Amino acid sequence: MTKAQLSIDATDRDAAGADVHGVPGVQALTRGVQIIEAISAEPRGLRFTDLLDQTQLPKGTLHRLLQALVEERLLGFDSRNQVYRLAPRLFQWAHTVWDNFDLRGAAEPELERLRDMTGEAIRLGVLDGPMVLYIDQREVPQPLRLNNGVGGRAAPHASGIGKAILAHLSLEKRRALFADIELERLTPSTIINAEELQHQLDLTKARGYAISVDEQNAGISSVAAPVLNHRGEPIGAIGIIGPSFRLPVDRLHALGRDVIEAARRTSGNFGEFAMSLAVKPRPLGPDRADVRCVIPASAFLGEGPHWSQEDGKLYFVDILAPAVYTGDTIKGTYKAMQVPELIGFVIPRKRGGFIAAMHGEIRGLDLASGALTTIAKPEADRPGNRFNDGKCDRAGRLWAGTLAIDTAPDQGRLWRIDTDGRTREMDRGFHVSNGLGWSPDDKIFYFTDTAKQTIYAYDFDLESGAISNRRVFVTVPEAEGKPDGLTVDSDGFVWVAHWDGWCVTRYDPEGKVERVINLPIPRPTSCVFGGPNMQTLFVTSARIRLSAAQLADAPLSGSVFAIETGIKGLPDAMFGG
Length: 577
Prior knowledge:
The protein is an alpha+beta fold. Helices cover about 20% and strands about 35% of the residues.
């Protein structure tokens, strides 16, 4: 930039700090970087007034800095929406950075940190043709004798590093690779069925990490996460590998967060979207006496609670197990049934049995036998999408939202599945589709986009199933976590679980906070009213990607909690088909 472009008037000089440690323009440069960072955090761009609030710069100083950044093609100004966005020159620089990226050099401190933290061997691998090539490692005092250290190769379908990379390839590249390799059985645990492997890779992508248990070598297990570039493409993976007796499945999952963090640090946090690692601090004060753990569990991602008045059971799912749970909230027990694919929710059917959202399909499910039948395939044109939350309106129609498995922005859609199985896309452009519900008079439909911190309200017509007039009902401040699942009570108030927020909030029909109930877990996921008088709020939760220290602070993460509210909820509707 020229001196004229970044010049600061004398009246602005103190606020902008034109001279720091004797170096003219350093503060102006720093302010410019802060402006770019603020705009990069908001995909829709920021208005001038938004930037004034965020930067607290004098109006004249901000205007001149923005003008200079636009002239240098670092920012662009959209005159239609009056917002500033990132400009192509920044992306050209990003390409230059990645063209010269030293994966081994960037990963080196993370390999050493993981080795010292875990006491296990750490490896860095890349995909080289049809095989994984190990390009760096950090061994422990008693190294593994596998004859495949640096320069060694491994089958991608059987190794943690290989599966972490495969899961994040585009579907086209993954199919092309599978066409050239044979899924060889290396141990009795190796997956050699292509469909089963695809399901596990989808699960890996949703979790953010891969595990391998006795698949590459008997008695050896590993957990790995991909290093992604600025396009979200895998350029390698970091893995922890060790004897299975030291790395049982529970420990592998607990270390999943640590390898994700190491991979992100290696790439400078490029490539990831809305996969949360950060957790807000636990609220101060003792736990509430009116919050009870009614079903102790260890769900990775407990979700989709549905209270059945007919049999007095709480049905919910673990999206990432994946499994369906039938919970007894009186005895504090549950039965789990494993399912083959990512599952978003289960809802009883009027004709008997259940409907379930599995990957991008709506299926009929018989819990007794495990039999599955396909009802609809709304996301057939987007195989990288999966269903998340869903509920039925009081006419028996199913409403369900989708998102990209890798949580790429704006890929989600809202679907309506009628009782005869016909599907209709009702809205699109969502990042992480989530909680939904209806007002007691069926005039308002609520729908959540977790990544955008927003719950929307629509006008709703029960007879036709039409929605219109989308507007913001609530925008949750980031300091309070992210809005996840929700339910509506008989007074028309909306109860929302706050992911990474340690709480459930009750909003009045105008969107104002009526009360906040703190919980002993950081990641409540959804809530539903149930119990004999429909006044008990059941809350599901998650333990996925929590560190060992975080789990020690919140050991009941993944369990189901109950809150006696004294307020009557609305019963969940069944699917009418």
